[in-house]
Automatic annotation (TrEMBL):
Pfam families referenced in this protein's UniProt entry, alphabetically: Ser_hydrolase
Superkingdom: Bacteria
PANTHER family: SERINE HYDROLASE RBBP9
InterPro entries (UniProt xref): AB_hydrolase_fold (IPR029058), RBBP9/YdeN (IPR010662)
Tagged with keyword Hydrolase: yes
Protein name: Alpha/beta hydrolase
Record GO terms (molecular function): hydrolase activity
Organism: Paenibacillus mucilaginosus (strain KNP414)
Keywords: Hydrolase
Gene3D superfamilies for this protein: alpha/beta hydrolase
């Protein structure tokens, strides 16, 4: 699966496609294949009740999917092993009906967890929002999460669909870090002109683009 690039102009939860390849479509509400398991993994300093996570959970539950928003421990002072253990204890099985949506630190944590699985089963896919795989100068305490490079080929082989979303004005995770992660994962890359770090403070209590992209994955369009 070759990577392609999409630029979205977003404001107050609305979006328009500015640039897209011929094989990608953002679409409105439609029928959804039932019975998927979706795990939502928050990032540093967050909880399941922050930002757009509750909104996305309710949207997916309304579509009859199973949704788990994981509560990552000590999110203001996270420890890599504790976060990996949380995923190991919370994710009971992975298969073609399993999808992940992650934010910020939750993204590299998911990749590290998947890398540890042997064998790593084929699964539906993931959306990484503001993901990174390099140390962040603003948050050196998170360096243990990025010390060792992920086996990207292993994850590429297992994940049927892969998307990374980043905003050009993110002042926490540099845009280039997320863009580089998309290349490492041979993932579709969604570039947002103005979105910051996609936090509640940035106006993100809802995130329609994530919902639509996930539906796109699930329906295999």
């Amino acid at each position: 699966m070759g990577a392609y690039y999409v630029t979205l102009g977003m404001r107050k939860g609305k979006y328009t496609v500015l640039l897209t390849s011929s094989c990608f479509h953002i679409y409105n509400k439609g029928s959804v294949i039932m019975g998927k398991q979706v795990y939502i993994i928050h990032g540093y300093g967050a909880s399941p009740t922050n930002h757009w996570f509750p909104w996305l959970k309710e949207k997916l539950l309304a579509d009859d999917h199973q949704v788990s928003v994981l509560h990552m421990p000590n999110s203001s002072d996270p420890r890599k092993e504790e976060w990996l253990d949380t995923l190991a204890n919370s994710i009971k099985s992975i298969d073609n009906h399993t999808y992940f949506v992650t934010h910020s630190l939750g993204s590299i944590t998911l990749l590290k967890y998947l890398e540890l699985l042997n064998p790593l089963p084929t699964f539906g896919g993931f959306i990484l929002v503001s993901g990174f795989s390099r140390p962040l100068s603003l948050l050196p305490s998170l360096n243990p999460f990025t010390e060792k490079e992920v086996d990207y080929n292993k994850i590429i082989s297992a994940a049927n669909s892969r998307t990374v979303i980043a905003a050009k004005d993110d002042n926490i995770v540099p845009f280039q870090f997320s863009q580089n992660l998309s290349k490492q994962l041979d993932a579709h890359f969604i570039s947002v002109e103005k979105g910051g770090h996609f936090l509640e403070d940035d106006g993100y209590t809802a995130f329609p683009a994530v919902y639509d992209i996930l539906n796109h994955m699930i329906k295999g369009i």
